[in-house]
Amino acid sequence: MRIYGEGGVTTLTLDSPHNRNALSARLVAELHAGLAAAAADPGTRAVVLTHTGTTFCAGADLREARPTGPRELIALLRAVVELPVPVVARITGHVRAGGLGLVGACDIAVAGPGASFALTEVRLGLAPAVISLPLLPRLDPRAAARYYLTGERFDAAEAVRIGLVTLAGEDVDAALAPVLDGLRRGSPQGLAASKRLVTAGVLRAFDRDAEDLAELSARLFGSAEAREGMTAFLERRDPWWTA
């Protein structure tokens, strides 16, 4: 991950092309460090979370699935939601599975025409368990049911319609410019207090459901169906249950 600061904005760039910016233990640790550094900088008014390559985030790194993974992801998502500085996702590529949780944890998300989204867990014998913590409070319920259950891919315009993304534009940086200008004009106290107001419902979901969803995620990851689904994905074949 790369960190760059200028003009009141700290940019955290997901830069792990070998695994499509999947949330490996290393990348999760780097994100925590980057968020903490931004929070400690009195000159930072916003964090922009962006990426290199054609994928924003592919979700969990299936090659290093581990028992502590669900709780590590919950801690990362909560760190984004609780950060006193607004976090803005800048998306110009693909977002899959747990990557949608990262987008959902951000306060504002801006997507370009190359962005696409899919909750693919159901096709791997899994479910969007812990990422439901930031997603379900934000998403249209009918849309959540559709995309949770089908794993269909959808574009930036649909992501805006269902509440995952704030705005979409042909030029993502032009769309982002007035957002960042507004954040730069905010006071640290005003931004932090306003963020607490708009994230209160999301944090209540963490307090209420995080432990149950972590256990569900761990149980699914350890199941025979999930092992088959992840193996089939890595081997680029259909799992046995495909009709």
What does this structure look like?
By secondary structure, this protein is of the alpha/beta class. It has a domain of about 170 residues: 2-enoyl-CoA Hydratase, Chain A, domain 1. Helices cover about 50% and strands about 15% of the residues. It contains nine helices and ten strands. The strands form two sheets. The protein has a six-stranded mixed sheet with strand order 1-2-3-5-7-10, sandwiched between helices. Strand 1 and strand 2 form a beta hairpin. Helix 1 packs parallel to helix 2 and helix 2 runs antiparallel to helix 8. The chain is globular, with a radius of gyration of 17 Å. It starts with a strand and ends in a 9-residue tail after the last helix.
The gross shape turns out to be: globular
Helix/strand-derived class?
alpha/beta
Radius of gyration (Å):
17 Å
Determine the N-to-C terminus distance. Answer: 40 Å
Percent helix:
40-55%
Number of strands: 10
Number of helices: 9
CATH architecture of the domain at 2-171: Alpha-Beta Complex
Q: Biggest sheet, in brief?
A: 6 strands, mixed
Quick check: average pLDDT? Answer: 95
What top-tier CATH class of the domain at 2-171 fits best?
Alpha Beta
CATH topology of the domain at 2-171: 2-enoyl-CoA Hydratase, Chain A, domain 1
**H-E order:** EEHEEHEEHEEHHEHEHHH
Strand order of the largest sheet: 1-2-3-5-7-10
